[in-house]
Every structure is written in structure tokens, then in C-alpha cells.
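JOB MANIFEST
job_type = single_chain_structure
chain_count = 1
residues = 185
[input]
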Amino acid sequence: MILPIYTYGQAVLRKEAEDITPDYPGLKELLENMFDTMERADGVGLAAPQIGLPIRVVTIGLDALSEDFPEFKDFNKAYINPVILETSGEEVSMDEGCLSLPGVHEAVKRCSVIKVKYLDENFVEHEEVVEGFLARVMQHEFDHLDGKLFIDHLSTMRKQMIKGKLNTMLKGKARSSYKMKQVKS
């Protein structure tokens, strides 16, 4: 089922998400719905707060990029209760967008290498060192679990420059090709 994506201004996007346990009700269905929602919106990642749930669950799907990046062929993974243990490597600047901020794209600096710990959909624990584009996507999505958005990494001047777009979202007037849950104006 395709779920509405919560846009900028929704309180759940600024809450710190809670860990879940293996007995979380309907987890398998939730993950399927998150993958479907992310794919329909042409996203590469989706965090549970973006669909209104303050829980530490993320889906990442990079298969759409596999023509240019063969290593992402069939890459669809769920991350439960993820934590970034450490960051390293150089800080790389790259344009980012977010399904919760339709129409906003800005350059964000992020570390090129991260060490993460997470549970998969079967609650098996993993610890990995990840680099490059996947590390960026993970940092972006895991930020959502801590109540952060990519715009929080922008300079004051850049934030000022996108203020009009943000105010449009706060008024419930954002536009996108996917189903959204906007702030009521």
C-alpha cells in the first residue's frame, strides 16, 4: 500500500524515533509498504518518521541506479534501530533532496565513510563499514530518526534562500507527484 509522505512542518519529522522490538506489530507489512511508497515517489530511501511513525526503521532501495552503478543491482534493504558508530574519510559535498521537502535540493557535506550497526528485517545484528553514495543515503535517512532534516546541515544564508519554499510547505501548499500529508494551513 502506498502511504502518504509527511512534509516539512509535521511534528513527527522533528521527534527522536524509538527503537522497536521483534514483536512490533505488522513489521513485515510496514516494510513492504515503505518500499512501495519509496519506489512510487522515486526515492532511494525512506525513514519511518516520513510516514508518520516515530520508530527507528529505514528502507533503502538503490536498484534504480544500477545501470550507472552495477553494485546497486537489486539493492533493497531494511535497517532497524540503526546507529552510526563512527564517521571518517573526507567530507564530500553533493546535492541532496528529500521526499519530505519536495522541490528543495541543496549541496550538503557528509563524511564519505561510516561505520554502522543495525538489525535486518529478521532482527539479525550487522556491523558494517560503508562508503560513497550508500554512506550518504544512510546518513541522510538515519538523520530522520534523530529528528533532523538535510536542511539542518545548511548555512544560515542557504536556509534563508530556501525560506520561501519552506513557508509554502508550512502553509500546506507543496506540490509533488506522490501522495503527501501536509501541514494544514
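[summary]
The chain has one domain: 5-181.
The chain has a mean pLDDT of 96.
exit_status = 0
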